[in-house]
Amino acid sequence: MAGETKKGLVLLDFWVSPFGQRCRIALAEKGIAYEYSEQELLGGAKSDILLRSNPVHKKIPVLLHDGRPVCESLVILEYLEEAFPEASPRLLPDAAYARAQARFWAAYSDKVYKAGTRLWKLRGDARAQARAEIVQVVRNLDGELGDKAFFGGEAFGFVDVALVPFVPWLPSYERYGDFSVAEIAPRLAAWARRCAQRESVARTLHPPEKVDEFINLLKKTYGIE
Fold first, then answer.
1. pTM
2. 3-class secondary structure for the chain?
3. pLDDT tens across 44-92, in order?
4. Which of 49, 131, 160, 188 could be 142's S-S partner, Cβ–Cβ 3.0 to 4.6 Å?
5. What domains does the chain contain, in order, with CATH numbers?
6. Model confidence band, residue 1 (pLDDT cutoffs 50, 70, 90)
């Protein structure tokens, strides 16, 4: 099967996935060459290579390194740090405590997507609860960022790579949740604008309009009015 026994790196991914985009941004930042393999996730059977590479979750992203699979986006980011120590920049800081903090906030950033998904899927009290959660998550991220240029300081790093793919989803979340990131988290909004100027980010992320179209497609797929 193509991609299974190839040497080098193959990324099994889906065009709009923020989790796959984490991997693409990290690979671009580090200048690591890889082959991109678009996977069918909606309206069709998942590929044999995806099912064999990630039999537990059957999801993208999966990074194949000389045919061996590495699954889960944050695990992939750490794998790139360890498997390619010569590739710079390093995304994780050197100090053990700072690395632990980066891992914590990178994992915490997933809550943006989880609460945001509930905003467009649910109604009534459930949507109100999701709104309260995402507002608090965004405020917490704003507080952690503080007055720094990026989450790790002056350099674009691990938490930035983990969080920035959710930025194009925020306008849709704002509309469904009736809130404004610029109002509740102005430092985070300014951070997003700084990140958008990076080539790795600009070339990887899609405009919010395309993300909103995809959300509408998901709503039709799931029969959500």
1. 0.96
2. CCCCCCCCEEEEECCCCHHHHHHHHHHHHHCCCCEEEECCCCCCCCCHHHHHHCCCCCCCCEEEECCEEEECHHHHHHHHHHHCCCCCCCCCCCCHHHHHHHHHHHHHCHHHHHHHHHHHHCCHHHHHHHHHHHHHHHHHHHHHHCCCCECCECCCCHHHHHHHHHHHHHHHHHHHHCCCHHHHCHHHHHHHHHHHCCHHHHCCCCCHHHHHHHHHHHHHHHCCC
3. 799 999 999 999 999 999 999 999 999 999 999 999 999 999 999 999 9
4. 188
5. 9-83 (3.40.30.10), 96-222 (1.20.1050.10)
6. very low
